[in-house]
Amino acid sequence: MHGGLKSLRRSVQPSFSRYRCLASAVPRSRRAPKEEGSIAAIFTSLTQGEEPNVLPERFTSLKRDIFHEGLVESWREVLAELGPAVEEISILGSDIVPRVSYGDIEKGLSTEQISRIRRVGTVVIAGGVPKEEALRWKQEIKDYATTNASHVKGYPPENIQIFEIYNSKPQIQARTHPSILSTHRFLLSLWRTSNPNTPISLDTPLSYFDRLRIRQPGDAKFALGPHIDGGSVERWEDPGYREVWRRIFGGGGAWRSHDPFDATGRDEAKFDLYHASNACSVFRAWQGWTSLSSTGPNEGTLRVLPMLSLSTAYTILRPFFRPKDPHSTSLKFEDWEADLDGPRFPGSSIGKTQELNERTHPHLRLGRTMVSVPRVEPGDQVYWHCDVVHAVEAQHRGLGDSSVLYIPAVPLTVHNASYLRDQRLNFLSGHPPPDFPGGKGESEFIGRGNLTDISSPEGRRLLGFEKFTTNEGGFKAEFVEKANRALALE
Ligand SMILES: [Fe+2]
């Protein structure tokens, strides 16, 4: 036992003198650790069934402040467009999700491929990481979990499918893998800033630590229903976040000009007003995973709603309307009316993710429109835009494990740099990254990842161990300086 701890201590000593200084200063995150637990904490449906929380009365005033008559026409238009969109998705099923090869990304995608990725909001990228490498990562993670079995946590606790593991060596290698990094550069390049002075660098990907899934055949516990990450009530309550939807709230058909890929405003948005365990507090442009298994539909994989702009407009407008007759299931515009006399925000709860189901968001027809992503092989990657409604198949009916490393594409903002600082410190001490359930994490694990597992300067920068640089002056230079201050390397 003692020998184990000694070797553990040795293993976390960084190999570069300036990092040794960071580690020896016993630095801890400036952010207070979040509550201990698992992924279940962020889902109202997993902790209290489908009964929604009742929101405080201030949310009634919030609705009245945002609402204006112009939204009624927008609501009518959105409902009218949802009908044909639902039909198209029902016919195409999984085929609607674009699938490209990593080689195509290196060569450059066609305009048609890019516009389809933008419309659907999800993309499968085949062949980035060699299959053998991905399978080796999975084996090493299993070995790591076995070595540290008495400490490993996850969900469900009695038969873990999603592990509270963030700092294994394979995760570090994957996050800094050249193919994954260049995929992230491509994905971030699909975004733009409508205001050129927005303090965001879409050319500078950062590493956002997340956990992993090794889901066994037959599992029906790790069933995440349809949801959108990035907070729930925050979308309306936080003035910065609300600004992201300024066109949807504009009325008079302005919702059509909402550009999901306009990053302006996302840097100011607060995605986690309530310091909720598992809530992503950074601007995460694309959530994503890298597959460690051969997994197809019905084998415990991801499901997505493949109509990004329309589902976003609907979701944002939804709290302002209700059926005239509470018992009616009619989806017709005429049978709905403005809802301004109560704090109802369907599927939203304080400190939880935004959940959606057939009852809370009936016009989306989720039973017909949530499609499973096509089959993936080990080393393939899947990404979905941060506003995409997604879920995990309720049951894993396949024969092999369904396994992924969650590795999203995240750009540089000042807030994201400050998060990176705390994530770096927690990584050095083996604690969970700041957004995730707190506790000792892997601090007492044997064989966790450390700085020596990062083989390139670019990899070190991704994880916040190198300063950001720019050759540009003016606003850009000022922004990079602020980001470096937030990173606090010295
Ligand atoms: Fe999610």
From TrEMBL:
SUPFAM superfamilies: Clavaminate synthase-like
UniProt cross-references to InterPro entries, sorted A to Z: Gig2-like, IPNS-like_sf
Pfam families, sorted: Gig2-like
Protein name: DUF1479-domain-containing protein
Organism of provenance: Laccaria amethystina LaAM-08-1
